[in-house]
Write the structure tokens for this entry.
Amino acid sequence: MNTIPYTASLSCGTCGTKGVRIDDDADENSIVRCKNPGCDTTFGTWGDVRKMVREKTAKKAKNDIVAALRKSLRKK
């Protein structure tokens, strides 16, 4: 199993461990599991998790841009 670096922000709701592991990151249908080997929590398929991480990253970037614009407009 491989630990996927850019999903390190995902944390397990059961044990609190940050990060995930996956059988085969080339396969969209591989199951993504908690990084803790003693925990049986799954996050869904690799394709679903990758999509979720991309959406959250894009939303955070958008919110950061909006906040920066608001801050710059308030200073004037």
In short: Residues 2-74 form one domain.
